[in-house]
Amino acid sequence: MTPFQQFRVWVRRASTADRMSATLAAVVVLGLLGWLVVPVHHHTGADDQVSVGASGTGATSPTSAPKAPGAAGTTTAAAAPASGTVAASAPGATSGSPAAAAPAAASGCAAPPGADQGVTATQIKVAISLVNIVGPAGNSTFGVPSTTEQQTDFQQVIDALNASGGVACRKLVPQFFEANPVNSSDLQQKCLDIVQAKPFFVIDTGGFYGSPTTNCFPQHQLPFLGNGRLTASQRDQFYPYLFGQGSVETLYRNAVFALRDRGFFSAGNGFQKLGYFYRSCFPEITKGFLDSLHQAGVAAGQVVSYDLGCPDGFANPSDLQQALLKFRQSGVTHVTETSATQDFANFTKLAQQQGFKPKYGLADDGIVPTSVGSLHPDFDNIAGAIAIDDSRFGEESTPGAVPSAGTARCNAIYQARGRPPVYQQSVGFGGVACGQIWMVVAAIDRAPALRRSALADGLHAARAVDFPYPFGPADFNGPKVTYGGQFWRPVQFVSSCSCWRLADAAFHPSFP
User: Fold this and answer.
1) Quick one: which of 335, 358, 371, 417 is 20 to 30 A from 411 by CA?
2) What is the DSSP letter of 507?
3) Helices 16-34 & 341-353 angle (0-180, nearest 10)
4) In the Cβ-directed half-sphere of 219, how many Cα atoms lie within 13 Å?
């Protein structure tokens, strides 16, 4: 029995919960990578670091990591102030109660005025949700670090931040929670637990990614930074409390026009028809993607679409077979997808078995980082595939690639504590910890007031953050921009290393 046949048997016999576990875990990895709130093209920005933590009721206690002398690793760029510097007050901003006032001037720093929950004279409390995939498809199946390692990564970044002055003249104090992305009841209860803990900010490493429960946080006026991309409707409904790794619409639009400019849809590239498979769970994404294709010059008659439905877990193998049959009979030469990341690997394995080897042009909605591990696509089938990426994935396997300044600074934090650089960590998770903490710190330090409702304004004032791998550059200018993903670059799958490498190291601005 081939691995794919074993997979089909598992899909047919596994419980819905197990299939959901595998599906959502793949999406979790996407979140961990994609920073969907990250890519930007102007490499300007500020870097901020994290602080030490204390556990709260119902949360896991933080891991105490030894501090190395001089291991703060904090250098700040001009776009945002260093931790503890003063941010300009907005007109009408009021100072908080004495308990929330900034520490004494003897510390040599000033902080935004105001008071709010989770803020004292010496501390700012943040809730951090760790991914804990329960069931046969656990964290290790997808290369996601254990909850212990995730917590250690965050704690060490926070230790470095606090050692260098903290944020807004205070120590950043994390309270850790574990979230199981395949259990909606657990996620709902965990949200309520976090709400009750009254933090100033919530950071999610992927446990809540793709779940409607995410809305629970902004509904309680809790700023929430997740590892997923935001849709336009989410941004409009929950501003200024929802932060993310990027924009869904921007990702797919950039992919279409970037592929066009690289000649992917040209006759010289052998293009005749485009096979497009998708999930109908997200009709607005499908419509937007097709509109972009037509604007890019791909005629409706050149697109052969297949709807995989909206399954709980992986798509039914029979649907993938029908998609392949339709593509082959219609003369498809090139293939793409949207919202079906978890089905891509199985599509390529079945395509390879049937001798169907199209050219793939993709938006990296999680396909690149999930090309490692036990559920990777068929490497022979995707040889030469092009993906348009708003993250830094592909750097780690590209000879001569130079880590960004943010990556180097993040590496310094871990190396001072005997840890490997982020290129060598599972899904670059250490970089996720650095990037998420730095983004929150930039928002706090530049906020006009220490209030949850003012943090989006703080991020706008920061303008950019010099994110580490795996996050790409980001530009927080513009109305309601609380996410990254404004820049892109192409990566290509290389058979000799069974890996993705940069096809162009430069980040390019989004298409209008």
Assistant:
1) 371
2) -
3) 110
4) 9
Domain chopping of the chain, boundaries: 98-247+403-487, 249-395+490-509
Band the pLDDT of 60: cuts 50, 70, 90.
very low
Of 78, 163, 15, the residue nearest 462 (C-alpha)? 78
> What are the residue ranges of helices labelled H in 77-172?
147-163
Amino acid in the structure at residue 10: W
Side chain identity at residue 296, one-letter code: A
- Token readout for 104 is 């004494």
Q: What pLDDT is attached to residue 76?
A: 31
Phi, psi torsion values for 255, nearest 5 degrees: -60, -45
Find how far residue 56's CA is from the centre of its chain. Answer: 26
How far, in Å, are 182, 346, 467, 482, 484 from residue 37 at the CA level?
A: 23, 28, 10, 8, 4
The CATH number of the structural domain formed by 98-247+403-487 is 3.40.50.2300
Q: Which residues contact 460 (CB under 8 A, 6 or more apart)?
A: 476, 477, 481
Residue with tokens 């926070």: 158
Contact (Cβ atoms closer than 8 angstroms) between residue 360 and residue 492: no
Average pLDDT over residues 114-123: 97
- Across the chain, mean pLDDT equals 82
- Rounded to the nearest 10 degrees, the angle between the axes of helix 147-163 and helix 405-415 is 100
The 10 Å Cβ neighbour count of residue 259 is: 25
Indicate the fold that domain 249-395+490-509 takes in CATH.
Rossmann fold (3.40.50)
pLDDT (0 to 100) of residue 323: 98
Region 67-77: what's the mean pLDDT?
A: 31
The model's pTM = 0.80
Tokens of 45: 């920005």
Q: Residue 418's CB: how many other CB atoms inside 10 A?
A: 9
Same CATH fold assignment for domains 98-247+403-487 and 249-395+490-509: yes
HSE (CB half, 13 Å, CA atoms) of 342? Answer: 25
Placement of tokens 């030894």 in the chain: 66
Token pair listed for 121 = 């004279």
Q: How far is CA 437 from the centre of its chain?
A: 13
Instruction: Give the strand pairing for 224-225 and 303-307.
Output: unpaired
pLDDT at position 192 is 97
pLDDT at 133: 84
Report the run of H or E that residue 303 belongs to, with start and end.
Answer: strand 303-307
Evaluate whether 364 touches 341 at the Cβ level (below 8 Å): no
Q: Which phi and psi (to 5°) does residue 224 adopt?
A: -130, 120
Task: Sort 262 into a burial class: Cβ within 10 Å, 0-12 / 13-18 / 19+.
Answer: middle
Q: Which amino acid is at 113?
A: P
State whether residue 490 is helix, strand or coil.
Answer: strand
